[in-house]
Design brief:
The complex is a heterotrimer. Chain A is of the alpha+beta class. Chain A has nine helices and eleven strands. By secondary structure, chain B is mainly alpha-helical. The chains are: A alpha+beta, B mainly alpha, C mainly alpha. Chains A and C meet through strand 1 of A and helix 4 and strand 1 of C.
């Protein structure tokens, strides 16, 4: 034998690696007609540096009005209604005070206050732990402050769900399509195996509209740019006592809740959304 | 050298077929999971990591424990381990492969796994985990194979393998530290938010890994003509003893911080695991079993007469392995998710499908372990056993 | 040769596996794909043109959709300026499928022929058939 079997295998292996490696590099560098393509923002789109929300629960008429917010958001974004609570998917929903702000309830607080409903959603933190841990940048922070989801890239590892201190994220344990009551044909659904959450209606912001929850809240949810000192959100924060969820964790949430004491009118029903 | 795995007794082949059967069954369940989603597991919106990830966490420790035989032999010339360094390395390989398989079956979109490489994210601990696990696998295959091949030929291994051996010694604790970092840096999970997580991980790894290695050495001695050596097994026993003490001590430290400070975020998960919280107590019997097994194992290990007796040492090793498997391979992960960020409780228990898939991954690991050990042992039976330094 | 019997059996099994796609599909002639652009929206167009030329779309629609995906989701851009200067909203569901509302007779024609199953439709809602 002129060449030993091992030598042959070594040479064959290296050739294969070089060949496929070279081919891949070549096709990656290939120029196509689309290289010169131009993309633009919609001029109508809203511009901001740190989008945030100020929520005044006292301005909701009744618990039905609060429930409606979840329904509008979920309907617009094809969020499924899955009966099995283990597989539940929710983007915005209500929790009682003691659950939305655990640790801040006090032992002698009125029951109505303890069970006071608060709308909870992704806080679009300024220092988001979910973005820090995502191994593929499938969840990432946009320049305008939105913590965004790229459903195409998500590998479904659910590290972000472990990292989120607010339980804001849901995972598609099963195919959600059969559970979407009424499809909104202008927005995609998700498929099984990816994580989803509120994305602050980025698709509406892009065409100049505010988020659906803010729009339909009759002024209870105010949307604006936290970095703009003249925005309504900044004025509300400056003139009211506001709290945020778990602020001591350093996540810097962008959702503020006005606590005025007037929330008691709602009667304090506890709904899990 | 692979041809050594193709010849064997009826028992050997029976064992291989048995493992293949389990793998096949699990594979069928995995096809179901691939088609319908992770909904067939017991995981939920609240407990989003379950049995798969906890098994991965436990097995990274077993993989890292290979360093416990490699380090004394190569850095300090501890001759007794000369015969079994290969067994340590060939245990690390299937352990790492099992880790990777458990991550794969846990992914919601497994076909997108290459996204981690296509879009590298240095700020994500999981990215590093993928890198260090792959690197460790490569190192162990390279070192194990090269050293064994040299032994087969009856010569010293090539000089260039030495740096790789030293790198692997440093790499081993790193893989487990990185895995601990997956948990220890998450601001919302107070059960895990502890500086001692990485230290706990290493202590339990260096107790459970060598415990398994003791059992494997005893099995090898029983079924083959190769004797790893009484001194090696005793040395391993001492390692297991000291690291089990350390592990129990570290757990005690966690208990102290939680309960002396009294902070609810820290105490609630412990209360849930060991006593039940608000009536939810599914894991309590399991956690107490882990504690009892730990105490029993320490009794058997601390007394030299019991440790020197290889039967009681075997029992102690089984106790150590099971105790830590429950603690790290179940309690630690589930405890981080209970209660959830809203202080509500959703319990977790693996489903039958989930358990079968997990069993299949273990079977694949056992299969690779069997094949590698068959090769190593066959060669050692021929050459007389000692790796030449 | 050693183990001649085993080797020949091995080669036979190997050939059985490798040739499977060929003999399995023997006799099944599949017609050349004819994607149809007969949809209400396209029929109403004065000048029937897509975002880019037919040849470009044929070769590069996959790449274009990928580029659009990254531009919309990751870069926050909505509008695509085509090579002819026209501006389009980058959306598979709302732009592409608005004209090509006959997925079965358009997209699926070639995809089925090529045995390609793009996973876009798992999330992006297909237009209602019968359009």
């Amino acid at each position: 034998m002129a060449i030993k079997r091992r030598e042959f295998l070594k040479i064959a292996g290296l050739t294969l690696a070089a060949g496929t490696g070279g081919l891949t590099t070549f096709s990656a560098l290939r120029n196509g007609i689309l290289e010169a393509a131009q993309y633009n923002r919609d001029p109508k789109g809203l511009k901001g540096s740190r989008w945030g929300l100020v929520i005044d629960m006292a301005r909701f008429q009744d618990s039905k009005a609060i429930q409606k917010i979840s329904e509008i958001c979920h309907k617009k974004h094809n969020v499924p209604t899955i009966p099995n609570p283990r597989h539940e998917i929710k983007w915005i929903w209500q929790e009682g005070f003691e659950h939305a702000f655990p640790g801040q309830e006090s032992p002698y607080m009125a029951d109505t206050m303890r069970h006071q409903p608060y709308l909870v959603l992704c806080n679009h933190c300024d220092n988001p732990p979910c973005v820090r841990v995502c191994p593929t940048k499938a969840t990432f922070k946009r320049a305008d402050g939105i913590v965004m989801m790229d459903m195409h890239r998500c590998i479904g590892c659910r590290f972000c769900m472990a990292a989120c201190p607010y339980g804001a994220r849901s995972f598609n344990f099963i195919d959600p399509r059969p559970f979407v009551k009424e499809l909104n044909r202008e927005f995609p659904t998700r498929m099984k195996g990816v994580v989803e959450k509120c994305t602050l209606c980025y698709e509406l912001l892009a065409i100049g509209k505010p988020p659906a929850c803010a729009e339909h809240s009759n002024g209870a949810i105010v949307f604006g740019d936290l970095k703009d000192p003249n925005s309504e959100v900044r004025k509300l924060i400056a003139s009211n006592f506001t709290i945020r969820r778990k602020p001591d964790l350093g996540t810097m949430p962008s959702v503020f809740y006005i606590v005025s004491g007037k929330e008691e009118r709602l009667g304090g029903h506890e709904h899990a959304g | 050298m692979l041809d050594k795995a193709l010849t064997g007794s009826r028992t050997y082949w029976g064992w291989i077929v048995f493992l293949l059967a389990i793998t096949g069954a699990g594979f069928l369940f995995y096809l179901q999971q691939f088609a319908t989603g992770l909904g067939i597991t017991g995981m939920s919106r609240d407990v989003s990591w379950g049995f798969y990830i906890s098994q991965f966490t436990f097995l990274v420790g077993v993989a890292a424990s290979g360093v416990m035989v490699v380090l004394p032999y190569y850095l300090h010339n501890y001759k007794a381990f000369g015969k079994i360094t290969i067994l340590g390395e060939f245990l690390a390989i299937p352990a790492v492969i099992m880790c990777m398989l458990f991550i794969f079956v846990d992914m919601g979109q497994p076909l997108r796994v290459l996204n981690v490489l296509l879009h590298p994210t240095p700020n994500s601990v999981m990215f590093y985990d993928m890198m260090v696990l792959s690197g460790y696998l490569f190192l162990n295959i390279l070192v194990g194979w090269t050293v064994l091949h040299a032994e087969k030929k009856g010569i010293a291994p090539p000089k260039w393998i030495k740096p790789f051996i030293y790198i692997s010694i440093a790499w081993a604790p790193s893989i487990h530290t990185v895995t601990a970092f997956l948990y220890a840096g998450l601001p919302g999970r107070h059960f895990w938010l502890s500086a001692i997580m990485a230290a706990r991980f290493l202590a339990s790894a260096f107790a459970s890994g060598p415990a398994l290695l003791i059992l494997l050495c005893l099995i090898v001695r029983k079924f083959t003509k190769f004797d790893p050596g009484k001194e090696a097994i005793q040395a391993l026993g001492k390692i297991v003893t000291y690291f089990m003490i350390t592990n129990v001590f570290f757990l005690g430290l966690e208990f102290f911080t939680a309960f002396y400070s009294g902070i609810p975020g820290h105490t609630h998960p412990f209360v849930y695991l060991y006593a039940g919280l608000d009536g939810y107590n599914k894991l309590v019997p399991l956690m107490w079993l882990s504690s009892i097994l730990a105490v029993v194992s320490l009794v058997l290990l601390l007394f030299p007469q019991l440790r020197k007796n290889e039967t009681t040492l075997a029992v102690a090793s089984i106790c150590v392995f099971l105790s830590l498997w429950i603690d790290k391979g179940f309690g630690l992960i589930v405890g981080g998710f209970v209660p959830n960020p809203f202080e509500k409780i959703t319990e977790y228990w693996p489903t039958a499908a989930e358990a079968t898939i997990s069993l299949a991954v273990w079977a694949v690991g056992a299969l690779i372990l069997t094949v590698l050990y068959k090769i190593a042992v066959s060669i050692k039976e021929e050459t007389g056993g000692e790796a030449i330094h | 040769m050693y183990d001649t019997g085993k080797i020949f059996v091995g080669i036979a099994i190997f050939l059985l596996f490798v040739a499977f796609p060929f003999y399995y599909n023997l006799g099944k002639a599949v017609a050349k794909p004819e994607p149809s652009i007969d949809t209400p929206v396209i029929n109403q167009m004065e000048k029937r043109q897509c975002v880019e030329s037919k040849q470009t779309m044929k070769t590069l629609h996959m790449k274009m959709l990928n580029d659009w995906r990254d531009a919309v989701v990751r870069d926050g851009q909505r509008l695509y300026v085509a090579t002819d200067g026209k501006s389009y909203n980058m959306s598979l569901q709302n732009t592409c499928m608005n004209c090509h509302s006959n997925k079965k007779k358009f997209c699926d024609e070639c995809h089925n022929y090529m045995a390609v199953k793009p996973y876009c439709w798992g999330c992006h809602i297909e237009p209602k058939e019968g359009a």
